[in-house]
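This protein record is not my work; I was only asked to verify it. The record follows directly below this note.
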Amino acid sequence: MKSALNKMNKENIEDIYPLSPLQQGMLFHSLYAPESGVYFTQIIWSLTGNLDVPTFEQAWQKTVERHSIFRTAFVGESLSQPVQIVYRKINVTVETYNWQELSAQEQQKKLKVFLDSERQNGFQLSQAPLMNLSLIQLDKNNYQFVWSHHHLLLDGWSLPLVLKDLLDFYQVIDQGKTFPKEPAISYRNYIAWLQQQNQEPSEKFWRQKLKGFTTPTPLTVGKLLTNPETSDIRFREQKLQLTESTTAALQSFARQHRLTLNNLVQATWGLLLSRYSQETDVVFGATVSGRPPSIVGIESMVGLFINTLPMRIKVSADTPVLTLLKDLQLQQIESEQYSYSSLIEIQGWSDVPRGTSLFESIVVFENLPVDTVLESHNCSFNLGNRQIFEQTNYPLTVVVVPRQQLLVRISYDTSRFDDGIITRMLGHFQTLLEGIIANPQQQISQLPLLTEAEKQQLLVDWNNTQADYPSNQCIHHLFEEQVKRTPDAVAVVFQQQQLTYAQLNSRANQLAHYLLENHQIKPETLIGICVERSLEMIVGILGILKAGGAYVPLDPDYPSERLRFIVEDSQVSVLLTQQQFVESVANRQGQVICLDTNWEIIAQNSNSNPKNTATANNLAYIIYTSGSTGKPKGVLVNHSNVVRLFAATDDWYNFNSQDVWTLFHSYAFDFSVWEIWGALLYGGKLVVVPYLVTRSPESFYDLLSKENVTVLNQTPSAFRQLIQAEESIATTSNLKLRLVIFGGEALELNSLRPWFERHGDQKPQLVNMYGITETTVHVTYRPLSLADLDGAASVIGRPIPDLHVYLLDQYLQPVPIGVPGEMYVGGAGVTRGYLNRSELTAQRFISSPFNDSKLYKTGDLARYLANGELEYLGRIDNQVKIRGFRIELGEIEALLAEHPQVWESVVMMREDEPGNKRLVAYAVPQSESSLTTAQLRQFLEAKLPAYMVPNAFVILESLPLTANGKINRRALPVPDVRERTKKYIAPQTPTEEILAQIWGQVLKVEQVSIEDNFFELGGHSLLATQLVSRIRDTFQMELPLRELFSSATVSQLANSIEKLKQQNSEFIVPPILPRKRKRGNRL
């Protein structure tokens, strides 16, 4: 300590003692980000009346002399533990400014600049006083008084005590009387009391209270702007003021049920967090006064006594609201008995991993008798219209001020939240609060969250898709009408073969008559079809529909076991195939018809359009999709589902007889339905792409050019490969595309940049469509432009005109704008359900809570943007939990996509060894890139918390795709075994040796590997301060505290130190200094 005190005037030192735990935490955050303005408190008063400025300044001087905390500075450099130093004598001045000559508008503008400048300058923590007093005269008897201080000195509960002393002193001095007030009891007494407390019962209580809570409650509402405006203001504040009648109702409710307003406020915030995060177990911070009544004179002591304690709320859907309120009240009473423990200690006793905050939001109930103090004095001036600016280290701080009209303030980090998000959040807070008191016996799940205006917007305005499109015809009837219009036009092409519309119709008719006459096909009869890509595939599908049956596609490239399962599950009565595939599907009952070897017999049937009794409400096809049980499930799709899809999208696309389509996808994938009938219902040409061509992007690109394809449908993964193929070919002149439509998986917008740079964004028009088999191929529509690439979001646009999309929470309540919710789809595209899976159908196809219709529960997460468009967030089952942390794999993938050398990537959780769950990232580099796994790790470490950085990285030439063009995650290789475990690695350099020794001393561990993570070894913010202080002393160089958080291993930190040495950054460690404050001119 001596070295830290050498430069101080020891004769002026009155006392030295440790910091309280809360002061230690605040000091850490102030040192960690010295220019952030964190814990800088600024109170702006409107001062009117006959003010004597010298008397005002003397009154402040007497107040400082009475309370030792105002004569306190904080020293942490070069010390094992930081201390606070109390000086005997500190002089304060009130800086005065004369702005009377400025207009009111100029005064307001200058005041804003003044306040911002003060916050940016901050305080030199080692020099008292840690406060500024500024008096700005606006006109004769009108001032703005600005009192700024560091939160290390005092809390809000001390404010009325300081004001009372200040006004008392002013009156006494103004009247020429003596000073009756004695020095206040020292803050040291409180520190001494804290050190005497037994932590064992507190530890036992908090461990039990937080047992099982492993993951901080996420603030899932984030920024909605794809191109947010940059701002120098890191934190902003918004307010909500309730009416007098609502406030009175809240107070009456609290009295009636023997609760406090604070109970109501905390319960409301907990329920709001639960609704936003869709978690049933939430934790947030709540401040308590922290003034132990056992300390003599505690009621008149000024200092920092408050503490922030975790409040845990477990939300059960069927629990009555009043029961939750009563439980929370008991928890508050119980928790305050152990409020002397620091938050850092409490967090260490929890199951949340070290280095991670226990919560991200705090609630402050600011019940301060400031107005009472002001009203009780008779000074020659008045203080009113108080504004308080205070910035914590939390992204969200909720301050509730009980007045005649209850005031709610939310301070928020603008890098995390848009203004609109917070505005809506305040509305939701009010709706929940009013809902609680309106019916306290209702179940928690029934509490309203949205305002009436939002309900109108989300449920009506943005789902105004009641359009009714013709759907009373069957698919084949529409095809037959097209045959009449363009009989000689080419309908389908495969390699060197082709059929006109008339020829295709004739062959399909022959097959249909054969099926009707020989196999008694009726509506709803299921007919399997297992053929390779060929003209016969289209003839077979169309023939089945014309016979009145429904086709069940069996892709011959599927494993034989899967094919046999589909055949057995669907119990197809007839199977159309080719001779080479008979054995693959021979294990069945029923008739087998080979379209190649049996065609001569089939061709003897009539080629006229057959008559059957099938209607639009009969089945058209059953497509099997992957099931969570490992067994595929068959989706039942009617003719009407398909027919209305094209009618509803006709105005967007204007498909016509000049269009050339490709059948790129497997006919067992529902994208093929869009490809086949998009061509054949409009007189276009359908090019059936050979399987080997679909596997070769270069060959497929050549086919697009030769066939003059105008409408291309692709999964994003397949299209990325096509972009690469075009780059290698180095030509774009032969393409005739007018539309490229994406579907099947999430689209990474930035991957389209090379395409847009070569083709622009007008022709072809790229369109992102979200869809699922159960809702008939497509659900939403979003044209893409070059401007969209600046946002990382996968925007999927708005619903097709005859569909509805609702984003709902776990209680089937609509979620607000910006809040993730599960997508539920309603409307004419919703299919019947699953074949032979009535229980699953009931689970996934539910009754709408809004009307008499049916909704499909998609399992996909999305959120509404402020403009009403939908942003796709990934599968619900793409959320993983590793070591207690809930992780969205899509978030990591989106960041990898931002790396300039990454072409495409995928992240997955692997458990190649039982119990060893880990994240693995797979990346394909840009062409001619020398991308390394180390670069990827370093890139993500700079953007993500440690628990979200993949354990292993694998660089591939390309990502494996399924037959449907989606990423085949099962085919991704196991990472190199060398990545699997961390072993002890001894220090290799003198710097690493010294750092390992310091780590061992601070963390009290015997052996430190150079790859050990400081926080995984038990480090936390206070130990981080000690560690960096020792490193500074040892190496005699300035090392920013934040460096430890970005370089959390010995090897990383050693590397940082070596770089600092090379930059000639060595110097004796000074205290952290802000920019010098400018003083004003005296009046």
User: Anything to note?
Assistant: The chain is about 35% helix and 20% strand. Residues 159 and 370 are 7 Å apart (CA to CA). Residues 201-360+395-449 form a domain with the Chloramphenicol Acetyltransferase fold (CATH 3.30.559.30).
